[in-house]
Amino acid sequence: MNILIVNPFGIGDCLFATPLLHSLKDAFPDTRIGFLCNKRTAPLLKKNPFIDQLFIYERDEFKRLQSVSWITWLREFSRFIKSIQKAKFDLAIDLSLSTPFGFFLFLAGIKKRIGYNYKNRGMYLTRSMQLRSYDKKHMVEYYNGILDLLKVKPHYSSMELYLNEEDVASAQNLLREKNPDNLSPIIVIAPGGGASWGKEAYLKYWPAGNFKVLIDKILEKYNPAIIIVGDLTDSTLLGAGDSKVINCTGKLTLAQTAALIQKADLFIGNDGGLLHMAVALGIRTISFFGPVDPLVYGPYPQDPHRHSILRKTLECSPCYRSFRLSSCKNDRECLVKINVEDAINAIDNVLSHKE
Asked: Whole-model pTM above 0.90?
């Protein structure tokens, strides 16, 4: 049996699906598994030993083609569907909660299509489970829950991220160059993130000024190697910064960033894909959560000794519910009220805990 998994969302969502992948391969060891994802997440799935083929669907690119020429769009879309048809999948696990993707899978001739039916968007699924919202349990558990439709028991709950040798070597070289004195601990900090939220990503950020103060206190207390990571849009968040800090924002690929995070003793950052990469790589984390419920989208499996979640719960928390973000009436107090001392205490607790 050949299986296609559809998850067109961000980094965290794709990593949340990796325990499902592992359980499928255990249950059906001879199966060939395909994974449909977007261009940004593809590099993080490329080395996963349980994925045999990646299919990249970039919604914005298809929209751009549609605006330029319907004929060009139709030709490229047909090519995309035919590439899936050619793989001859027997089953699709659709995690998109989207009618169009169900239709794509129908067009591709995949006879068995399973997933969650959210707001009757699962009309093209042949078997489904009703879903009102992702709420009160973690996304990993929701994704693993799909296995019930196949009468398969999930055996894995930890996210998995596999790196290639070139990226690991590049991380080693960078540390050799930028941290010649072998300062320890190595602390990776991500002051931005949340790219899948687009222009609203800033709503998930702990204030940049707090990060600056925190970095000064960490340097004073631990004398560590501090590395700042993120994409080009994050490069101006902390300004010039301290000369002792290694600023890699906008200078590394996502896979290279993952390899660098793997070398860290601690990751500190906002709710977002880089956080989940750190968790999947087995790195201890301190994370800041505001509009999103960490019970659903936080580090998993939950372990307060390894993963400290900082948040200030308000009456309106969380304001991201049922896939919708309410307008903030409290000037992001849920994040702003997390003070630097809270973060320092969390760092002390996580770093001091013995394995």
From this structure: yes
| Domain total in the chain | 2
- Asked whether residue 7 falls in the same domain as residue 103, the answer is yes
For residue 78, tell me if it sits in a domain. yes
Question: Cβ–Cβ contacts within 10 Å for residue 236, how many?
Answer: 12
Q: Which residues have a Cβ under 8 Å from the Cβ of 220 and sit 6 or more positions away? A: none
Q: Which two tokens stand for residue 294?
A: 């960490």
202-228: pLDDT as tens digits? 899 999 999 999 999 999 999 999 999
Three-class SS state of 267: strand
Q: Which of 139, 97, 158 is nearest to 122 (CA)?
A: 97
**What is the Cα–Cα distance from 157 to 144, expressed in whole angstroms?**
8
Domain of residue 122: give its range. Answer: 2-150
Non-local CB neighbours of 60 within 8 Å, separated by 6+ positions: none
pLDDT in tens, 234-259: 877 886 666 789 999 999 999 999 99
